[in-house]
Every structure is written in structure tokens, then in C-alpha cells.
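Interim report, section 4.2 (structural modelling).
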Amino acid sequence: MQISKNKVVFIDYTLKDDDGNVIDSSQGREPLPFIQGVGNIIPGLENALEGKAVGDSLQVSIPPAEAYGERNDEMVHAVPRKMFETADDLEVGMQFQTQSEAGMQVVTVVGIEEEDVMVDANHPLAGATLNFDVAVMDIRDASEEELEHGHVHGPGGHDHGED
Ligand code: ZN
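Predicted structure of the assembly:
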């Protein structure tokens, strides 16, 4: 079986930045499951995996445009310090989830001033080239329910609990 749209794929992976620092890895965990072709993973990785089979491994370097996009400096903005419940404990590098018009968003504190806190709403990996080592561990057909939900069920996947 080969990887194609609507297959459930299990991969082992290590993600590094351009300096060789490990950003994320499945090492020590179960392989990551996703549904091919529905946007569960970044487009560049879907493209690289299309047509691969169990046992294949690959190294792929994915530019920002096919990963989390370019950085947008306009997404760095000031928020009044009093908007933060934890105003006294703020530190550069902290991340918060906020509700925006575009849905849930993670913002990173990039500066703290007298009255304002500078936050960056770019995805933490925006502008980064992503270097993946990937091994294809398993491939199966997705169930109708999985395709309806747009995510994988079962071990390593989405758990809706017992009804
Ligand atoms: Zn589901």
C-alpha cells in the first residue's frame, strides 16, 4: 500500500531547524498518525510523503511557504499590560492562547514595556525552514468516520472517550 489521499499514515519523525537543533521528535513515543491529503500535517510534508510505502524513510527540507508561512511583522503588536491577569509575572518568551477572529491563536511575549506588552502572533515556526527525518511505519485505509471527522481515531489518534 502506498501513501495517497485519505490513507491513515503512521510516521516516526525528527524535526530540526537549520542549525541542527531538534524542535520536535516522535522518539520515545508512538508513531504520529495522520490522514494524508486533508491538512492534518503541513503541505510540504504531505507532498514529500505522497506515493511512499511502509519501510521508506526520507530526509526533506521544507521551506516556510510549504510549512507555517513567512513571518509577518504586522502580527507583532502592543497589548495593554493590564489585559494580562499575570501582569507581574510576565517574561519574554511566554506563550498564551488567545481567541481571535481567526480562531484560537498562540501568541508569544517578545517585549515588556511600562504600559504595554509586545506580543507576536506569528506561528512560532513561521519563517523557519523545517528539516524532517521521516520513516513510514504503517499505512491503512481511513474509516468513513475518520474521514468525516478529519482526524485519526484509535491509538495515538483522537480519543472521543466512551459514550
Ligand atoms: Zn473523531
